[in-house]
Specification:
Two copies of one chain form a homodimer. Chain A is an alpha+beta fold and 196 residues long. Helix content of chain A is 40%, strand content 16%. Chain A is built from eight helices and five strands. Chain A has a four-stranded antiparallel β-sheet, sandwiched between helices. Chain A is globular and about 50 Å long. At the A-B interface, helix 1, helix 2, strand 1, helix 6 and strand 3 of A face helix 1, helix 2, strand 1, helix 6 and strand 3 of B.
Chain lengths: 196, 196
């Protein structure tokens, strides 16, 4: 049985962490991105199916290709961010199940079942996207997740001819606190939860 | 710019954390569940839409009602867990947007658009479910998320006549390390990520 993390750590990953919109001119190393993936991939997914795929857009050329498909309001910050992650999921994730979940034939749960494939990829790919956001903060990075982009455009640009589909984007880097908005209100416990 | 959390903290929330299947006979207080919600709700969602709803099943009566709809293989551990969270999402989440995202008319993005509603609720409700798992570990709890249950049955049993839909279940409590399975393999960096 573990103790709670200390207040500074709880603040860093949840209570004080904020979505960032302005970015310091400070790169994120490839080693840090590898450490980020090594952490997030340990988060649980159903039958260890691990459907999320991460394209870390770092180069100026790749950033230009991405920006064509990003909403107006997200352009400036995405241009400034040292890295933008395309959080995607693989609709053929079940091909890896003999390796990822070797003790039973989990691949057969999905073969030919489009609804189960789509739902499992989207649910668990989203869980892994959330693990990425929290893992980034735990590693001292700031995150700026975004849904405002043309999904089909990004898929054509980066994933044409593959079973990968984009889910959301997330700027990563070292944020400038001056660009953070006021904290938006949250629901109360009773509005979002119940103990029965 | 924050430092990375120390190794013990990174271990507790990701690197050493494990899905639990056996539970100590030790209750989880309502105060702890409230603290859990206070943390997870600070995680980001698109336009702060916050669609997840959490039903913490604690009483013997409610647990029996839930167990009727849980897969055979998940019965024993769910019975033993002091709390099972039904992680759900609210298909009428957009009704809260005037309060949650007051500076623009975000509610109008969703009114009458079933696809946008379903997709946004499922994506962001899943993100919040992942925040719950990591926040639980950060608070010293153990988690055991599960997809093996009858979704329609749970929705009829707990959410009949409401716009809430179950997403996944998650046992919460203080795990018995003896019940943890061997760590399943994960994909390599190159199998799940790319830097471009």
């Amino acid at each position: 049985m573990a103790d709670p993390l200390n207040d500074a750590a709880l603040g860093q990953i949840f209570l004080e962490a904020r979505t960032h919109n302005s970015w310091q001119d400070k790169p994120v190393s490839d080693d840090t991105l590898r450490q980020l993936v090594d952490m997030l991939k340990m988060g649980p997914t159903s039958a260890n199916c691990s459907p999320a795929r991460f394209t870390f857009v770092k180069s100026a050329d790749a950033k230009e290709r991405l920006l064509k498909h990003v909403s107006e309001g997200n352009q400036k910050k995405t241009h400034a961010a040292p890295v933008t992650a395309i959080v995607a999921y693989d609709l053929e994730f079940y091909e890896n199940l003999p390796k990822l979940f070797p003790h039973t034939d989990a691949k057969s749960w999905f073969t030919g079942s489009e609804t189960a494939i789509q739902e499992t990829a989207f649910r668990n790919g989203s869980l892994q996207g959330a693990y990425m956001i929290v893992a980034a903060r735990a590693l001292g990075l700031d995150a700026g997740p975004m849904s405002g982009f043309n999904r089909d455009g990004v898929d054509q640009e980066f994933f044409a001819g593959t079973p990968l589909r984009s889910n959301f984007l997330c700027n990563l880097g070292y944020g400038d606190p001056a660009g953070v908005y006021d904290r938006a209100p949250r629901l109360s416990f009773d509005e979002m939860a119940d103990i029965v």
